[in-house]
Q: What sequence folds into this?
């Protein structure tokens, strides 16, 4: 521990709020992302983060330095998220609400209707700390929508152990201490969590790796998608999709898997005369777009956010969220007419 950090700890214990804020600042973004992985909801993660920081401030005299400050904060955050998982009333599923469009019969119904996207703009600083030796997931995979969704169906304690061990790379003993458990119990929970994930293969399993973020390959497929979607060019759009493309729309539980049913779904949207403008952003390390419905008044109105999951030069998943998420991405509610 450096002299400066020791001084800050002493000041924070004495009630110096500025010293406390300086101590936790390097960990704030990664704790926010941790809460998001645990809860799958951006709003719930924000609440859990604030609860974590308040608890850490109120209990800072209890920080004895036997573990690192980072480990101590993760202990608090993990347990606050576990409490939230146990007590939260999840958002209910929402009925189809697109006027003038009759959706096809879904191929499945999603369990995780509370899923929300995480803005890439908030990832700055979230990956500054090196992963521990036990981490097995690439950082890009560990923030993807598919991975976060799959984790939400795990029992809370198994979810916590899997994130702490396999995503962040904490050691077995550290994790057991964070959860007030034994090493044997934590290892057993980890094994069950891994089996649970294997039973729910991710949409990206069996596909090519996605292009590198911001690469020429990614820009090319994104440009083709935007051109096809804005022009309501169904034929071109369908050529961009993998055979088993997956479409979901939380909090609506409807899910569609397969190119043929995806084509029917998009045909219904375009066939109703709906035309869109797309504004690029990024969510969960993936290309994303604010979707704006062109109105008769010449103004395009924000109706949601579309996130793409890429496989090579194809799209293997599309996830559509409601327009309430647009402000998180600094996207306006409306666009002036073109």
A:
């Amino acid at each position: 521990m450096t002299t400066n950090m020791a001084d800050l700890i002493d000041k924070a214990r004495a009630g110096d709020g500025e010293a406390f804020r300086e101590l936790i600042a390097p960990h704030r973004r990664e704790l926010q992302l941790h809460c998001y992985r645990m809860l799958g909801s951006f709003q719930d993660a924000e609440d859990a983060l604030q609860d974590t920081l308040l608890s850490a401030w109120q209990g800072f005299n209890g920080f004895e330095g036997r573990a690192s400050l980072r480990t101590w904060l993760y202990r608090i955050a993990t347990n606050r998220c576990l409490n939230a998982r146990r007590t939260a009333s999840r958002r209910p599923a929402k009925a189809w609400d697109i006027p003038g469009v009759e959706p096809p019969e879904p191929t499945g119904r999603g369990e995780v209707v509370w899923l929300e996207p995480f803005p890439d703009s908030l990832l700055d600083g979230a990956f500054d700390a090196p992963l521990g030796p036990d981490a097995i997931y690439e950082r890009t995979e560990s923030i993807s929508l598919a991975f976060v969704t799959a984790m939400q169906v795990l029992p809370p304690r198994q979810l916590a152990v899997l994130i702490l061990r396999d995503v962040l790379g904490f050691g077995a003993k550290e994790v057991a201490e964070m959860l007030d458990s034994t090493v044997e119990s934590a290892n057993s929970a980890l094994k069950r969590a891994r089996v649970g994930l294997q039973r729910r293969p991710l949409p990206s399993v069996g596909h090519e790796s996605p292009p590198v973020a911001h690469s020429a390959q990614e820009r090319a497929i994104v440009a083709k998608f935007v051109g096809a979607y804005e022009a309501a060019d169904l034929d071109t759009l369908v050529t961009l999709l993998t055979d088993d493309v997956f479409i979901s729309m939380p909090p609506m539980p409807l899910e569609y898997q397969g190119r043929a049913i995806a084509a029917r779904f998009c045909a219904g949207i375009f066939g109703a005369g709906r035309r869109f403008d797309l504004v690029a952003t990024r969510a969960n390390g993936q290309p994303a777009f604010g979707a704006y419905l062109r109105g008769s008044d010449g103004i395009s109105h924000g109706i949601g956010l579309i996130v793409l999951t890429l496989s090579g030069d194809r799209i293997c998943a599309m996830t559509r969220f409601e327009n309430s998420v647009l402000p998180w991405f600094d996207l306006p509610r409306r666009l002036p007419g073109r």
Observations:
- The first strand starts at residue 108 and ends at 109.
- The chain has a mean pLDDT of 93.
- The two ends are 58 Å apart (CA to CA).
